[in-house]
Write a structure and sequence with these properties.
The chain has 226 residues and is α+β, with helices and mostly antiparallel strands. It folds into 2 domains: 3-115, Ribonuclease H-like superfamily/Ribonuclease H (Nucleotidyltransferase, domain 5, 2-Layer Sandwich), CATH 3.30.420; 151-225, no CATH class. Helix content is 32%, strand content 33%.
């Protein structure tokens, strides 16, 4: 005889309902929301499962992968479709939801959801966290730059002189920085002045420059703070 199971998963516990092919409830139990606890119930040799359904949620990928790896015919069901089907119940409890999911598995009234492989999930997690770390690093660097500007300092890792040697009738730009690529500070001046034409205050900024004695690319260089 074929059996069908419905899993109503919450963060801590999962309600399990097992029915036979006639719709009769064979077993109801509540276990921890962990693969080992679920497998202890579902791997019972007395049951011959045809379909096991669980609703898509935060733990569904983890539990789905473990149950599928154990050889169980588990199906992840679309959340909105499942909620609409279970809304007709008078008493909305975890136990009744597990019963409803089991009966939907028995009659085939469900909409399956594709679950990515564990490798794809790990790769997506790494890419998502990498993007998060990059955005946080950029935000911290921008905050540091804004803080240093209040004290007349400009933190950079390289600067490009506006003047250069003539090359084929044009100017050759140069990028100048530390040999090890470390950031450094430039001496600067801030000033607020009122534009008489527009009648508004304008915040200006200038870099303090010094003569370039050793470097013959340009006639002056920005003053690097050491």
């Amino acid at each position: 005889m074929d059996h069908f199971a419905g899993l109503d998963v919450s963060v801590k516990e999962t309600s399990v309902c097992i029915v036979d092919e006639t719709g009769k409830i064979v077993r109801e139990v509540k276990v921890a929301s962990e693969p080992e606890a679920l497998l202890a119930v579902l791997k019972n040799p007395a049951y011959h499962f045809k379909r096991i359904g669980l609703e898509a949620g935060p733990l569904s990928q983890w539990l789905f992968s473990a149950l599928a790896e154990a050889g169980l015919p588990v199906i992840c069901v679309e959340t909105r479709h499942m909620r609409a089907a279970l809304k007709a119940q008078i008493n909305k409890t975890d136990r009744n939801d597990a019963r409803g999911i089991a009966q939907m598995m028995r009659v085939g009234l469900y909409r399956p959801v594709h679950v990515k492989t564990l490798h794809s999930q790990k790769l997506r997690m790494l890419l998502t966290h990498r993007k998060l770390l990059q955005s946080k690093a950029i935000a911290i660097e921008n905050d540091l730059r804004a803080t240093l500007r209040n004290f007349g300092l400009n933190r950079i890792d390289r600067f490009r002189p506006v003047l250069g040697v003539l090359a084929k009738g044009g100017k050759q730009p140069y990028a100048i920085g530390m040999k090890d690529g470390a950031p450094f500070g430039l001496a600067g001046l801030w000033e607020n002045w009122k534009d008489p034409a527009a009648d508004e205050w304008v915040r200006t900024f200038t870099i303090i420059t010094v003569p370039s004695d050793d470097l013959r690319v340009v006639g002056f260089l920005a003053g690097v703070l050491t």
